Structure formats: structure tokens, C-alpha cells
């Protein structure tokens, strides 16, 4: 199952205005005044996203050392489990300790997260293409096939993107690919998303049929 890894850029803080600085103040940080030294890392898969890109806005507090002390969902993704994973990632993150004139202060801030469904198409079943050792002509070979499919996952176009160096082998691999290949339909944000994919097939003499 494909997993989606979200690493937050340091420049995308969205903060409120600065507060008056006092010994016990919690400073509301402006954009660019602080940044992650340990970024929130969120792992989600397409099933968890349920076919939709998601956004979450999290408010948080960090202490004088930069550790996150509390968090709150300000704008939900619409799914509780995703919100929980985002909150957990923020709690495990760390920001650069904030200081003014050599004095460190706790801060409050907001962070937007955008989590996108993978656009990488998946096969219903990856084509299995056996080759005869003699057809490899004394060396390992590889072929890359570029394919497009309709909204049901049926291949509508396929062509050799990278040749094995042997025209007969290329034609055989393409023929077998067209017989077997079928994709899982790809729906994103409630709409069909065009399926395109390049797949590399390796053929080694060691594994070829004698």
C-alpha cells in the first residue's frame, strides 16, 4: 500500500502579530521569526485520505527550549484519524528556541498542513512477463513501457519508452503487457484523475527460462 510522507517546509508558518515582551509573555510569532528544527512528519496512505486531498490548520505552543507543549486543531481535515496523526506529529516536532536580547520565551504559532493523495497509479495486478534465456542474447535486459488508461483502469495506450536493444524482445514485452495490464481506477477529490505510468521490466539471464 502506498504511503504518503509529508515533510513541512520551514517557510510556511502562518503566525499572528507579536505580543508585548515581558518575562512571562508567550510570544505570538510572525512568519520567518522561528522555524522547525525537527519537522513534523506525517505518514498517511490513500485509503486513509479516502481519495481526497486534505488540509489541516494546527495551533500550538512551544516552551523556551522549543519543545511543543500543547496543540489544537483550528481547521479540521474532516477526518478525526487524520487530525489525530497530524497532532501527534506536531507534538513530536521541535522549533528553534525563540529569544529576544538573549532571553528565551515560549511561543504560540499556527501551521497549515496540506496532505495530497498520491497521483501514482497502481496496477490491479502487475504484468508478469517470462522470457527465454536465448532471447536475451547473452546479457541482462530491461524495457520501460509508458502507458495510459481510462477511468475504469483499462489501458488505452502503451509504447516502448526505453528499448532493451532488441526489437523482437521489445515487441514481445509490449504484446504481453497489453494482454495483462490493468490499473485500479484513480479518483481524486471526487473526479477521475488521468492515469499515466512508466514501468520498468528487468530480465536477467539467471531468472530466464532455459
TrEMBL record:
Signal peptide location: 1-19
Residues covered by the TonB C-terminal domain: 28-122
Membrane topology: Single-pass membrane protein
Molecular function terms, GO-annotated: energy transducer activity
Subcellular compartments: Cell inner membrane
SUPFAM superfamilies: TolA/TonB C-terminal domain
UniProt keyword list: Cell inner membrane, Cell membrane, Membrane, Protein transport, Signal, Transmembrane, Transmembrane helix, Transport
GO CC term (a single one): plasma membrane protein complex
Pfam families: TonB_C
Chief location category: membrane
Transmembrane segments: none
GO terms of biological process kind: protein transport; transmembrane transport
NCBIfam families hit by this protein: tonB_Cterm
Family according to the record: Belongs to the TonB family.
Protein name: TonB C-terminal domain-containing protein
Organism: Acinetobacter rudis CIP 110305
Taxonomy of the source species: Bacteria, Pseudomonadati, Pseudomonadota, Gammaproteobacteria, Moraxellales
Amino acid at each position: 500500500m502506498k504511503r504518503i510522507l509529508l515533510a513541512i517546509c520551514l517557510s510556511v508558518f502562518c503566525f499572528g502579530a507579536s505580543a508585548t515582551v515581558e518575562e512571562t509573555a508567550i510570544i505570538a510569532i510572525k512568519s520567518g521569526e522561528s522555524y522547525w528544527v525537527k519537522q513534523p512528519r506525517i505518514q498517511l496512505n490513500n485509503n486513509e485520505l479516502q481519495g481526497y486531498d486534505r488540509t489541516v490548520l494546527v495551533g500550538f505552543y512551544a516552551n523556551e527550549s522549543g519543545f511543543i507543549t500543547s496543540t489544537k486543531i483550528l481547521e479540521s481535515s474532516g477526518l478525526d484519524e487524520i487530525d489525530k496523526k497530524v497532532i501527534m506529529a506536531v507534538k513530536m516536532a521541535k522549533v528553534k528556541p525563540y529569544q529576544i536580547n538573549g532571553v528565551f520565551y515560549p511561543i504560540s504559532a499556527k501551521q497549515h498542513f496540506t496532505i495530497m493523495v498520491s497521483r501514482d497509479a497502481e496496477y490491479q495486478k502487475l504484468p508478469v512477463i517470462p522470457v527465454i534465456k536465448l532471447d536475451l542474447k547473452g546479457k541482462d535486459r530491461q524495457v520501460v513501457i509508458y502507458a495510459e488508461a481510462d477511468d475504469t483502469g483499462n489501458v488505452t495506450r502503451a509504447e516502448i519508452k526505453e528499448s532493451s536493444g532488441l526489437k523482437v524482445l521489445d515487441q514481445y514485452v509490449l504484446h504481453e503487457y497489453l494482454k495483462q495490464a490493468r490499473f485500479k481506477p484513480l479518483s481524486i477529490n471526487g473526479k477521475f484523475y488521468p492515469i499515466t505510468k512508466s514501468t520498468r521490466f528487468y530480465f536477467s539471464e539467471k531468472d530466464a527460462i532455459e
